[in-house]
Design goal:
Blueprint: H1 2-16, H2 32-35, H3 49-62, H4 69-83, E1 85-91, E2 102-105, E3 120-129, E4 134-138, E5 141-145, E6 154-158, E7 165-169, E8 177-179, E9 182-189, E10 192-198, E11 204-207, H5 214-220, E12 222-224, E13 239-247, E14 252-260
Antiparallel strand pairs: 1-3, 2-3, 3-4, 4-5, 6-7, 6-14, 8-9, 9-10, 10-11, 12-13, 13-14
């Protein structure tokens, strides 16, 4: 009898074993998932899920094929007022414990000393910016503080007269034209374009742009000798250069002084 039970067990047991479960991992749904653990974050960046989420939202908006012309400008303008726009600046590593921008290493040699604090490129969603106050949006929170070494934007000095007016903008920005003492900067993001207006008080607006005049303003730009510089500029910027930018109000070129971290 015992032998019969044993034979029956050997026959039935293999049939009752479960087949091994094979789980197929889903493929990444977006290119960003291939290059960063946090969707939305860019390759080789130090970037947390909150920043990745904000970048994803911005990408979906600016690349929305259903938004054209004025509707797109209004949607981008609303985003700027409520949640800011992605803006680059120089910063330091300890900033990650403050408002946590997306961080990249700078390619400039002077930003990468063998000893001491390195200078990094940071990106945050900024709503407005002056030497006295930066307004940043992060994780459903508006952060306001006086810019220091944690946020060093590019100064743009406009010589309306001998003493220049200083505007602050993203790294590598250059005005397209000037009107009524306001700068107009053509911004490009992932091959999408919009026009940013910056007034003398540091208020940012996204405004309509006359595409037919873009080439006119570009053709008017001219390299100029820089005036005798008034005041100082942040040490993060090694290169100073000047261009004549067309002023619509005065129908003439205005000297504009700009900066780069280092020679390209």
């Amino acid at each position: 009898m015992l032998l019969s039970y044993l034979v029956l067990f050997l026959i039935v047991s293999p049939l009752s074993w479960s087949a091994p479960q094979v789980k197929v991992l889903s493929e990444p749904s977006t290119p960003q998932e291939f290059i960063h653990q946090n969707p939305g974050c860019l390759e080789n960046s130090e970037c947390d899920p909150v920043m990745g989420h904000q970048i994803n939202e911005w990408n979906q908006l600016i690349k929305n094929p259903k938004l054209k012309g004025k509707d797109k400008r209004l949607a981008l303008s609303k985003h700027l007022k409520e949640r800011g726009i992605p803006t680059e600046f120089y910063t330091i590593q300890k900033v990650s414990r403050f408002f946590k921008p997306m961080l990249f290493n700078s390619h400039c040699r002077n930003h990468n000393p063998k000893e001491g604090e390195k200078i990094l490129r940071g990106t945050s969603f900024i709503k407005s910016l002056t030497p006295d106050k930066a307004v940043i949006w992060r994780d459903q929170t508006q952060i306001e503080f006086t810019p220091d070494e944690q946020l060093v934007a590019q100064p743009i000095k406009v010589y309306f007269d001998e003493v220049p007016k200083i505007f602050l903008s993203s790294l590598d920005d250059q005005p397209l034209f000037i009107k009524d003492h306001k700068l107009y900067i053509l911004k490009e993001y992932e091959e999408e374009f919009f026009l940013l207006e910056i007034d003398e008080k540091g208020k940012w607006e996204i405004v309509d742009m006359d595409i037919s005049k873009l080439s006119f303003y570009e053709d008017k730009k001219a390299h100029m000798e820089c005036p005798n510089s008034v005041g100082t500029h942040p040490t993060e910027f090694e290169v100073r250069f000047c261009k004549g930018i067309w002023d619509e109000s005065q129908s003439k070129l205005i000297p504009v002084e700009m900066y780069q971290g280092c020679a390209n």
